[in-house]
Amino acid sequence: MSRTIVCDGNEAAAWGVALSRPDMVAVYPITPQSSLAEYISQFVADGIINADLMDVEGEHSVLSVLHGACLAGARTFTASCGQGLAFMFEPYFRTPPLRLPIVMSIVTRDGITPQCVWGGQQDAMTVREVGWVHMYCETAQEIMDTVVMAYRIAEHREVMLPVNVNHDGNYLSYCVEKVEIPDQEEVDDFLGEKNTNWHVALDPDRPMGVDPLTGGAGGPGPALFVRYRKGQCKGMQTALRVITEVHEEWGKRFGRYYAPLVEEYRLDDAEYAIVTIGSMAGAGKDAVDLARESGEKVGLIKIKTFRPFPLKVLRQSLSKVKAIGVVDRSVSFGWNSGPVYQELLSTLYFLDERIPTVSFIGGLAGADITIEHFTRVIETTAVALRGKEFAEPIWLNEND
User: Looking at the chain, which terminus has fewer C-beta neighbours within 10 angstroms, N or C?
Assistant: First the structure.
């Protein structure tokens, strides 16, 4: 039987880990991820999670020991954010090409300087091109459910890639909500047998080399390296289908349905839309409802899966409207905009007609993006719909 508890997003993530029955967990605490590490440690101590808990000296070692465990056939989990993710970057970069189906929560936070330990999405957005699957959650319930689904996605034979389940620091990490925990036997049946090491398995009776030198002088040539990269790209594109299938099966089994790639909210008759990602979508939907009451034909597009980028589905959503306002919780410094806005510009290339697009940046350093902020986004996007161009990003919290 399922049961209902009240918990924050970090505990919800920990329950998702417990339900997934990992063999090894390694975590190093860092704000605002720290309580997730503490929940998992307590679950291991209490016997809720039957896994080896590795006590290591830092994030680089966290992911390095999980490489070995996963190569030996273990189901693994970790979590990090901010400077911890930066310290982890070298093994983080190596995980996808090794095709290791590790699941990791990023409890997103902003950059470290000026000094900041508060929420944002700068960390996850900065590593978006490394080759991990990236999914963003809106609620604590979605965090727990997505952590479980992440193992089905990562361990799929045609994917075999690591998955990041991202949730907003401060807001989802500490926000307390009702969460329904499904029956363990039902989750076991949903996940099936572990499938972590069919492609390579470290075995003392069958020694092998892992990650051999490729390309360049003395190597087997660039063709092998190209084969690795091409296979990794194929796995990422296959993940779009697998993510959709896994979310559909989860909904049928447990009665909770989430848009696997892109969610449309009040978009069918909309003239223009705002685009969100992560927990901000709730306030965005409220602002859309208020604008609808005033006669504005506005909708909302929420991105759930950001890597692999859901080009086909997002293109279909964008084709329904004539202008968009894109709200980012991080910065793309090279483009003087938000990174989601930058990605949307690429998507618009595939539409038959050019539509006005406005970049909004808010929620940096833990700042709130309120209904009032989203009302401003809607009003400004409506102005863009009527023909005014906005060459610069609009900073929502600049005067807060």
Answer: N
Do β-strands 133-136 and 305-307 pair in parallel, antiparallel, or remain unpaired?
A: antiparallel
- CA separation, residue 202 to residues 13, 60, 68, 131, 206 (Å): 29, 21, 8, 23, 7
Q: Which helix (H) or strand (E) holds 23?
A: none
Q: Quote the CA–CA distance of 224 and 36 in Å, as a whole number.
A: 40
Question: In whole angstroms, what is the distance from residue 253 CA to residue 354 CA?
Answer: 41
In whole angstroms, give the CA distance from residue 26 to residue 62. 5
pLDDT tens readout for residues 68-116: 999 989 999 999 999 999 999 999 999 999 999 999 999 999 998 999 9
Tokens standing for residue 84:
């911890």
User: Are 306 and 277 spatial neighbours (Cβ–Cβ below 8 Å)?
Assistant: yes
Taking the whole predicted model, whether its pTM rises above 0.90 is answered as yes
| Whether the Cβ atoms of residue 13 and residue 144 lie closer than 8 Å to each other | yes
CA 127 to CA 111: how far, in whole Å? 13
Among the ranges given (192-196, 231-235, 380-384), the one the predictor scored with the smallest mean pLDDT: 192-196
Domains of the chain: 3-200+232-254 (3.40.50.970), 262-395 (3.40.50.920)
